[in-house]
Design goal:
The chain is α/β, with parallel strands linked by helices and 405 residues long. Helix content is 25%, strand content 22%. Bound molecules: pyridoxal-5'-phosphate.
């Protein structure tokens, strides 16, 4: 890795070739004609939504699929998120439902969405009526999708209300129903008994209308885990998030399925202090040198998403070797013990989150230490970190190379 890339600034290096590799791996699971909707919510799981959308839409993978756009659609959590990215040349899904109460307060945002043809989620008759009124005044048709709750009890229309809701939506000339979807409760475990019954309920609720509108309704259910574990749920379109970024939804590296992590988080080693035995390091003085020690300083802290729980438990990588985090991670700074790495120098590039899935600083290891899931480790990466596209040579994942390339 080129040290100048990170000179002075903590940086997320984003590998577009890894992103394309993961898309190809996902595409390979799908029957011909099944679309991919890239989930880029939460700033593309911390990777930088603009950069990821550009890589997925503007660039081509540079192989036999070159004349094929990488993905067919993108999904954001909210209209606000979508508005922060230059309008991509493909359909945009907004996952968060338009609530009835919310329409008047968000009129401009909704009009912007309608004008751009974004697919808006509608779960209630009230929201459908409000949306239709807005679209009609604009002389346009709003494109809507309905997510059906088959067990999440989160943001889906209750099955009992679905027939009436769909009738109501179709009665509005100013609304065009384009998408029907559901979301799985648990798709991480192969053989989870809820997935087939959720899918069966979804198909039963949507098959009548789907056969009435052949080719005009896109039905989708599968997130990353279901892409790999549950081919029957692929339907017309899949909605992978985590797998695009090269992370296993199970939370463990899987050497037989070589997803390639897209992100590597680096920061410069800005200072090294030689300290005497007995010296304490960091807030609270929680770590005390037991020997003559070299303490390194990195300009990254919990405000950047480097958890305070990493204090005394995580490792960073310096010159290819692990160095333990010592003392309390603070808001903007982290201290590491370099006593056993005499070759470390100020200006060295330190890796806080490694692209190698087997690294002591992998997303899996950090999630384990923080008692969370890899999703949270990447989704909370701070806004002040630079996101820099790199391509393709600097991500070394030798064990993970496969026939895919
Ligand atoms: C976040 C999300 C996804 C993507 O899930 P992954 O597990 O990251 O693949 C798909 N569908 C919906 C509705 C989501 O909210």
């Amino acid at each position: 890795m080129d040290a100048t890339l990170s000179a002075g600034e903590p940086t997320l290096l984003i590998s577009r070739s890894a992103l394309w590799h993961n898309v190809r791996l996902i595409r390979r699971q799908l029957a011909a004609g099944v679309g991919i909707c890239a989930v880029v919510k939460a700033d593309a799981y911390g990777h930088g939504a603009q950069l990821v959308v550009d890589a997925l839409r503007k660039f081509t993978p540079g192989d036999s699929e070159a004349d094929h756009p990488c993905v067919d659609r993108v999904a954001f959590a909210s209209m606000d998120e979508a508005a922060q990215v230059a309008q991509p040349d493909c359909p945009v899904h907004i996952l968060r439902p338009i609530e009835g109460v919310y329409v008047s307060g968000h009129r401009e945002a909704i009009e912007h969405a309608i004008r751009n043809g974004w697919i808006l989620s509608v779960l209630s008759v009230e929201a459908a009526n409000d949306l239709a009124r807005l679209a009609q005044r604009m002389g346009m048709r709003a494109r809507v999708g309905v997510m059906i709750d088959t067990g999440m009890t989160r943001c889906g229309a209750p099955p009992a209300l679905v027939p009436a809701l769909l009738d109501r939506i179709r009665a509005h000339a100013a609304i065009k129903l384009v998408s029907l979807s559901t979301h799985f409760v648990s798709s991480e475990r192969r053989g989870d008994e809820r997935m087939p019954s959720q899918l069966a309920q979804f198909l039963q609720l949507t098959s009548p209308i789907s056969s009435e509108m052949p080719g005009r309704l896109v039905r989708h259910a599968a997130n990353s885990a279901a892409v790999f574990a549950f081919p029957r749920a692929h339907l017309d379109l899949v909605r992978p998030g985590l797998a695009l970024y090269g992370i296993e939804p199970s939370g463990r590296p899987n050497l037989s399925r070589p997803l390639r992590p897209v992100l590597k988080w680096v920061a410069p080693l800005v200072a090294i202090h030689d300290v005497n035995p007995g010296t304490t390091v960091g807030y609270g003085g929680g770590w005390r040198a037991s020997r003559l020690s070299r303490i390194g300083l990195i300009p990254v802290g919990y405000a950047d998403g480097y958890s305070r729980r990493f204090s005394g438990s995580a490792s960073v990588i310096v010159q290819g070797k692990p160095a333990p985090v010592v003392g309390a991670v603070s808001m903007d700074l982290t201290t590491i013990d370099l006593t056993d790495l005499p070759e470390a120098r100020v200006g060295d590039v330190v890796t806080l989150l490694d692209s190698d899935p087997l690294s002591p600083a992998s997303v899996y290891e950090l999630a384990r230490i923080d008692q969370t899931i890899p999703y949270e480790i990447v989704a909370r990466l701070g806004a002040r970190l630079r996101r820099v596209p790199v391509d393709p040579a600097d991500l070394e994942v030798p064990e993970m190379e496969s026939e895919v390339d």
